[in-house]
Design brief:
There is one protein chain. Helices cover 44% and strands 16% of the residues. The chain is an alpha/beta fold and 633 residues long. It is globular. The strands form 4 sheets. A 9-stranded mixed β-sheet has the order 3-2-1-4-5-7-6-8-9, sandwiched between helices. A 4-stranded antiparallel β-sheet has the order 11-17-14-15. Strands 13-12-16 form a 3-stranded mixed β-sheet, with no helix packed on it. It folds into 4 domains: 141 residues; 272 residues, 3-Layer(aba) Sandwich (Rossmann fold), CATH 3.40.50; 62 residues; 125 residues, Alpha-Beta Complex (Adenine-n6-DNA-methyltransferase TaqI, Chain A, domain 2), CATH 3.90.220.20. The chain contains 20 helices and 18 strands. The termini are far apart. It is an enzyme of class 2 (transferase).
Length: 633
């Protein structure tokens, strides 16, 4: 067995292919590890029907078709229950996208040949540590991928404190690489009396990259009863699933798309991590337990929105323990101070056991957090013992606005510049992330440029009028008394969501185009049940075998439709004008690939914009905290 197999592949791919970004190389390797698992699985179940010799082809298109057929056969196998429908489509698209992006049959064949030395599933499972080493190397070489990985020491302490048991469901709404889910499964196997423990694992993530890594990570750790779902956990959830154990390390920062978050949330502010906290407690079964990592700002956040969330937490749930952790524990993702909340759905909070992990120094890339750092905490927390670094917070004596660090600061001769130092750490972290995002953006644009040139030679484009491939109607007038501030159905006007309604007029995939005034020509791709007002046009794809709806939306958004508007007092667009718009369409498979590229580019640009806004906010908060420290006694 070659323990360094996966890392060796990473080194060779970065040297001999056009891929220079570690994250992209790991995605390529992970895809082929997954595909090799499929071969082993089908072979051991006597279902491998494809001619394995197809991989000897030098034609990347033949290789792509072979692997897509292999995957499709796998998902139709009767025993495969662990991947949802959206992930099927994403992985099929990824197979094409990644192989096209590499555009090097020799690298593909080298990967396939190297992995073919793993002859059985039994041997495949022996590479779990090797795959973990590959993930850690990715984090060290590409700081931004730290957002998908929780340090092992934090994972182990969260699982140890919750002590998940057999026969229960374990859920992570922001699963990343599924480290928390895998460690929970290992804990159950170590402590269960049942030789074949029966538990279920559920993980959600908005990143198709993270979902792929999660699937491979779970499979290689010999997990089979799992479901990894490509979705935003904060979006409306009609099923309202409940779980026995919830563990998560959610993304930090601010959420710019609050319209997608469930309208019934108690928290209404901008912080994404607070929305995840509310989702976590809402996802708990009665007597269920949760552990969530948050920035320490939550403990002393005095904003009214955060106070409302703390009210809900304290009155309905039992916040049993807070573990305060020095800054730098999540590097290279972020350097901010952290806390872990341990919560149970067993009634209101009475007394919170607060423990301050005091190492006397900050964590860093070279001084990482370790499991041994928590030995004393585990001993004390189980007995809830008071020491110099641990105490109780009696919620009955803690008045609104619930500053849970007051006693902490009193014990340590409250530092006037406590907030300032915290703000500086966060600003440094955000600037580091910004540089990482800019570097990634540069690499993605260079990669796109190369591949687009290749596609422009390989594909023929068909010119066609929109009216021949889509049905276009005007929206409907909605009476003012039916436009609600909250409701199940979003109402779209000329510039996005303007309110809600109890009734839908359109379903599935739609393109909404602003029709009247300064907003005419705005283009939005929308999924789900919606109402569209008469200030917009609705475009419905009637040729799904010819055009991909999200691709068409992106294409229309580049055409400056507003220039088609007529009228003097108030400009407007007509259905006839949109029907007559002519577009050039590549083959459907190419549309899928281009759409995926553009989504990834949009995601990177959105992160870039969020970081710019965070840095602006950091500057203002730093100024305010310094003034407060100097002027307010």
């Amino acid at each position: 067995m070659n323990d360094s197999l996966f890392e060796d592949l990473l080194t060779i791919i970065k040297k001999k292919s056009a891929i220079r970004n570690t994250e992209q190389a790991v995605e390529l390797i992970s895809l082929f590890i997954f595909l090799h698992y499929i071969k082993l699985y089908l072979h051991e179940n006597d279902e491998l029907f494809l001619d394995i010799k197809n991989i000897s082809s030098n034609n990347t298109n033949n290789i792509k078709v072979y692997y897509q057929q292999l995957y499709q056969h796998f998902i139709f196998s009767k025993d495969i229950k662990n991947i949802n429908h959206d992930m099927h489509e994403q992985i099929i698209s990824k197979i094409g996208y990644i192989i096209d992006n590499v555009n090097n049959s020799e690298i593909i064949k080298y990967l396939d040949h190297s992995l073919s030395n793993i002859y059985s599933l039994k041997e495949f499972y022996q590479y779990s540590n090797s795959y973990q080493s590959l993930i850690l190397r990715m984090v060290n070489e590409s700081g931004r991928s730290g957002e998908y990985v929780t340090p092992s020491a934090l994972v182990q302490i969260m699982v140890e404190m919750l002590s998940p048991t057999d026969g229960k469901s374990i859920y992570d709404p922001a699963c990343g690489t599924s480290g928390l889910l895998i460690e929970s499964a290992k804990y159950i196997k170590r402590n269960s009396k049942n030789k074949n423990p029966n538990y279920s694992i559920i993980g959600n993530d908005t990143s198709s990259f993270a979902c792929l890594i999660s699937i491979v990570n779970l499979l290689i750790n010999k997990e089979s009863n799992f479901e990894i779902i490509l979705k935003d956990s904060l979006e409306k959830n009609k099923l309202n699933e409940k779980h026995d154990f919830v563990l998560t390390n959610p993304p930090f920062g601010q959420h710019n798309r609050l319209d997608n978050i469930h309208i019934d949330t108690c928290y209404k502010g901008p912080n994404l991590d607070y929305y995840f906290l509310e989702h976590v407690i809402d996802s708990l079964k009665v007597d269920g337990k949760a552990a969530i990592i948050l920035p320490e700002r939550f403990l002393h956040d005095l904003n009214k929105e955060c106070i409302a969330l703390k009210d809900k937490l304290f009155l309905r749930y039992n916040l049993e323990c807070i573990l305060s952790i020095p800054s730098g524990a999540l590097l290279p993702y972020t350097a901010v101070k952290l806390c872990i909340l341990f919560i149970s759905n067993s009634g209101p909070t009475d007394k919170i056991y607060f423990y301050e992990l005091n190492k006397g120094e900050k964590y860093s890339r070279s001084n990482t957090i370790k499991k041994d750092d928590f030995i004393v905490f585990l001993q004390l927390a189980k007995k809830r013992k008071i020491t110099e670094h641990s105490w109780f917070i009696d919620i009955r004596d803690t008045t609104i606005p619930y500053n849970l660090l007051i006693k902490d600061k009193e014990k340590n001769s409250y530092n006037l510049f406590y907030e300032s130092l915290s703000n500086i750490e966060e600003t440094i972290s955000n600037n580091e992330q910004l540089l990482s995002e800019l570097s990634l953006l540069r690499e993605k644009i260079a990669s796109l440029e190369t591949t687009v040139k290749m596609y422009s030679h390989k594909n023929t484009f068909e010119k066609i009028k929109i009216g021949n491939i889509a049905k276009i109607n005007s929206g409907k007038l909605l009476q003012k008394n039916k436009l609600l501030s909250e409701g199940p159905i979003p109402v779209y006007g000329g510039n996005g969501i303007i309110g809600y309604n109890d009734e839908a007029m359109e379903y599935g995939e739609n393109i909404v185009i602003g029709k009247v005034g300064a907003l005419c020509g705005n283009v939005r791709y929308v999924q789900g049940d919606i109402w569209v007002t008469n200030n917009s046009l609705i475009l419905k794809n009637k040729s799904p075998n010819k055009i991909l709806t999200p691709y068409l939306a992106k294409l229309l958004s580049t055409l400056n439709l507003r220039k088609l508007a007529v009228g003097t007092a108030q400009q407007y667009l007509t259905t006839t004008q949109i029907k007559d718009v002519e577009v050039s369409l590549p083959p459907l498979t190419t549309q899928h690939t281009l759409n995926m590229w553009l989504d990834e580019l949009d995601g990177t640009l959105e992160k870039y914009n969020k970081l710019i806004e965070k840095i602006k906010k950091d500057k203002q908060e730093l100024k305010e905290s310094l003034y407060k420290g100097l002027l307010i006694q």
